Amino acid sequence: MILDSKIPDGPIAEKWDNHRFSSKLVNPANKRKYKIIVVGSGLAGGAAAATLGELGYNVDCFCYQDSPRRAHSIAAQGGINAAKNYQNDGDSIHRLFYDTVKGGDFRSREANVHRLAQISVNIIDQCVSQGVPFAREYGGLLANRSFGGAQVSRTFYARGQTGQQLLLGAYSALSRQIAAGQVTMHTRHEMLDMVVVGGHAKGIITRNLANGETKAWTADAVLLCTGGYGNAYYLSTNAVGCNVTAAFRAYRHGAGFANPCYTQIHPTCIPVSGDHQSKLTLMSESLRNDGRVWVPREALDCGKFPNDIPESERDYYLERKYPSFGNLAPRDISSRSAKEACDDGRGVGQGGRGVYLDFADAISRLGESTIRERYGNLFQMYERITGENAYKRPMRIYPAIHYTMGGLWVDYNLMTTVPGCFALGEANFSDHGANRLGASALMQGLSDGYFVIPYTVGNYLANTGAGALSPDAPEVKEALEGVRERVDQLTSTKGTRSSRSYHKELGQIMWDFAGMARNEKGLKKAIGDIQDLRGDFHKNLLVTGSNETLNAELERAGRVRDFLEFGELLCRDALERKESCGGHFREEYQTAEGEATRDDENFAHAAVWEYKGKDKTPDRHKEQLNFDNVKLAVRSYK
Amino acid sequence: MITILISNKYFTMSSLFKKYLMALTGIVLIGFVFVHMLGNLQILLGQESINAYAHALQSLPLPILWGSRIFLFACVVLHAFTAILLIKENRAARPVPNEVERTKRAGWSSLRMGLTGSIILAFVVFHLLHFTTRNLYPEYGELETATGSPDGEMIHDVYTMVLVGFRIDWISISYVICMFLLCRHLAHGVSSTFQSLGLRSESWSSKLDLASKAYAWVIFVGFSIVPLSVLADKYGLISFYSHNSLKTADLL
Amino acid sequence: MNLTLKVWRQSGPEDKGRFESHEIEDVSEDSSFLEMMDQLNELLLSKGIEPVSFDHDCREGICGMCSLNINGFAHGPEDSTTTCQLHMRKFEDGDVITIEPFRARAFPVVRDLIVDRSSFDKIIQAGGYISARTGSAPDGNALPIPKADSDKAMDAAACIGCGACVASCKNASAMLFTSAKAGHLNLLPQGKAEKDKRVVDMVSAMDNAGFGNCRNYGECSAACPKDISLDFIAKLNRDHAKAKLKKLFS
């Protein structure tokens, strides 16, 4: 596997401009001859499909939901970063770039991150002009809030529904192109395989979830905007339908999968309440602007009503350990600190897996109405789920799997190692390194979709020329047959266990051994356990109903099957990365105070996995990461 | 105006156009019932007042008299016709009913506009036959008096006709019931009119709802006073109306 | 808690559909309504009965995918709550719960409790956007927007497109959805240029989809998980009338 990152020459601030200029263009009159498939309709997919349609390409866009507006980008609450420096607090493109590289624990590609910081500015303008109702000051100018991992106020937001508003912006742009006939939307369609001909991605196979029909679609390029793989852990903040299938099928066809072990645990989620739990709900990290995190100083106090525990008996551990960032310490650090407190027996709530997030100080300082205005919807959501009033008592929070920094390896053009197959947004690996800063995911999705891919896909198409494969080509038929066979396997196993029970068990293994803290022994055990579970799955799975109708059990079983393979890959990557960095914390590699220890000498690279065949160990390749503009340093938020 | 609107191709009967029609005809009828009520209440001022008022109305120049009558009639017809169209479409829009039908906010009045409207329409027909064309009681037409006449000529004695009419228990009671239904129709209808025409905003929507309900009750009370007081007078609970004319007409 | 569930089953769009009753035991008070449905499906699966199909995705009240009519209420009896955020502590042990799909001609049943809400997408495609070509936007602060206007637009934009307004309306009217979508864009200066065309086109797409007429009784707003106000319907009525009159007299 050749990993050519295709980073353009020149100083970092000029790379993107140079690259855009040197990219080939497709003649406007020729664009309609090119077909592009976009899988996924979230921020990355929706923005890409809308923009490519607007440029004149012939776009087919697919999503598994009943409407493109429902993709899980919609759930992002807090905001979107941009180096606008509207607050005059010293922000700049270079600072956003620096913060993101540092926040990513020096495991991201400099050139990509700098481009992201540059484009961030355009994203806000674009969204405002689409009618995204960002929060404003009384003077009518855009408002900002601060967010974890940054000392400037650069986050734009729309109440606690920023992701929703940005997605609706992209969705409206997409709808405009659908109405114009430039984009054909296929809802309730799930991509089950990719068609690769002569080494190039030339199409996909989908299953129509409403009626079970499997069908092949051919095109000149395939864009995977299919999100992350957090649901490998069963319980995560992802939507229940989120899955790794599309990315994993691309991996099976030769697309390198980079850094699967980089998973982000979000520190402010509502704790698990019981076995029935099907997903975890995130509370925006912005809560940490005004909330103070604490646990009782003594384990004995954990059962007490929180308001009865005096100040002197509380341990505001983030403020204690990280005085300069305090409650705004980056996500991985706050999450791990919460785990440590709970491992220490000082956790609160059911099962001792929770810490307090207390607004009492903020309420007495700013008044309840201000807090209500800032976080009203979050407090309401918290009350609905837990039945507790957070204005009167502290919230209970606990970390949960939230985002996955790893993903399909892509070069500077966002193209995977399979030419013609691109990966955008959370589905790729490029911008966040080992840890993503808050309010950066929305930025990346939109940057990839609106501003990067229109140039880079054009360059690819101009170089390869138009000529989508005929749907009757033998390669297409073969792929279609393969998918039908695999779907049939699921319904014909006729065992006794539901796919959900496998998914739950896999999630437990992943959370226990590849969760917030990992070690060699645990990861090896996890790999064995997952292999056993997978073996059992193929023998004992029960899927009722047929594949000719809407069949949710069948959909889940297919997704779980891929998670069962992918989970092993994740553990394998975690096992091989013998250092602690960002979201990947190996217990063997920490300082005496429990801080993560990076190994820049041996691991300043992206690990890229190449599929070698069924039941064969995949190969691990490296893309060396060079830091010419940001000095490698120990990340300190003390 | 309405025909122009309908003929305009941009004004093909969109759902909103139908709502505008309901609201515009509704406003006319809302205004009409108020003026009608004020007219009725003149009976409380005595025989002279009400007879003079009725005579003045009857003596309006023909184009104005018949113009307003036709206009009112057209409004009623359009209001009812549009309602039927809307109801038909609404039924088609929800072909399979829910097993359990419940509501959170919608009240009885707003859910039963069709029912109250139909009964009111039937009532209007009855009312016209009763007091206007007097087909039901042709003898009412012979009631004449000089009281209230501007020039001493004999004019129609509305005062006596009303007294006679409302002394029949079932008629008075059904009038009051129908006025109650009208009240319910208006309670939703008045605010609905403003909503349909877009003349409602956050700042005064609660006041509008209140005003709408208040208006509906004013209409109910205003219209019910006459039949109820006539009945009360009949049974000797109060002594308010002059019985002289009844005696002369030999109707007591 | 133990419950009796009366669930609508319909094998496909052509099927007539019927209710099926199932007993379910040991439901946790802390589980959400959909987690209770998961539990039911696991139970059915273990008995070899095909599980009940229902739409769901984010399970945090924002994607708008879940869509059950519970005991006669769209998204259940709790105010300002989607089905996925409705928790079982709101029910009593021994309750009989009737679960139906969102019913409307414009929302044909796909299977069991799943309906096709693509008519909403069509309304948006008719004009629920501001034509802003990618990359051509002026600076975000070039056009100050009064906070009050922006906040009001956000109130409308909070709509999650779930269709509870349609399901709760006896006439299956989509006015709340359409008015929220149009209102959001019409309130902002960026949306002014296309305002008249937008309202006319969106209303006609709404009519063509087969939704019923608004009766102004507010069930939609009462059922709306995001509390979208009836004022937006008034605004749509107003904007539509203005647009038509402008056209008429231009």
Label this structure with key terms.
heterotrimer, A: 638 residues, alpha+beta, Flavocytochrome C3, Chain A, domain 1, Methane Monooxygenase Hydroxylase, Chain G, domain 1, five-stranded parallel β-sheet, five-stranded antiparallel β-sheet, 16 helices, 19 strands, 36% helix, B: 252 residues, mainly alpha, 3 helical TM bundles of succinate and fumarate reductases, two-stranded antiparallel ribbon, 10 helices, 70% helix, elongated, disordered N terminus
Explain this structure to me?
The complex is a heterotrimer of chains A (638), B (252) and C (250). Chain A is an alpha+beta fold and 638 residues long. Helices cover 36% and strands 14% of the residues of chain A. In chain A, the strands form five sheets. A five-stranded parallel sheet of chain A has the order 5-2-1-9-17, with helices on both faces. A two-stranded antiparallel sheet of chain B has the order 1-2. Chain B has helices at residues 2-7, 15-41, 47-58, 62-93, 108-111, 113-132, 158-166, 169-196, 202-234, 244-248, and strands spanning 144-145, 155-156. Chain B is built from ten helices and two strands, in the order ααααααββαααα. Residues 1-11 of chain B have low confidence and may be disordered. Chain B is mostly helical and 252 residues long. Chain B has one domain (13-93, 108-248): 3 helical TM bundles of succinate and fumarate reductases (Up-down Bundle). Chain C folds into two domains: 3-110, Ubiquitin-like (UB roll) (Roll), CATH 3.10.20.30; 117-249, Fumarate Reductase Iron-sulfur Protein, Chain B, domain 2 (Orthogonal Bundle). Chain C is 36% helix and 11% strand. Chain C has eight helices and seven strands. Chain C has helices spanning 33-46, 118-127, 147-157, 164-168, 175-187, 195-208, 219-223, 231-249, and strands at 3-9, 18-24, 69-70, 73-74, 96-100, 109-111, 114-115. In chain C, the strands form two sheets. Chain C has a five-stranded mixed sheet with strand order 2-1-5-3-4. Chain C is elongated and about 65 Å long. The mean pLDDT of chain C is 97. Chains in contact: A-C, B-C. Chains A and C meet through helix 2, helix 4, helix 5, helix 10 and helix 11 of A and helix 1, helix 2 and helix 3 of C.
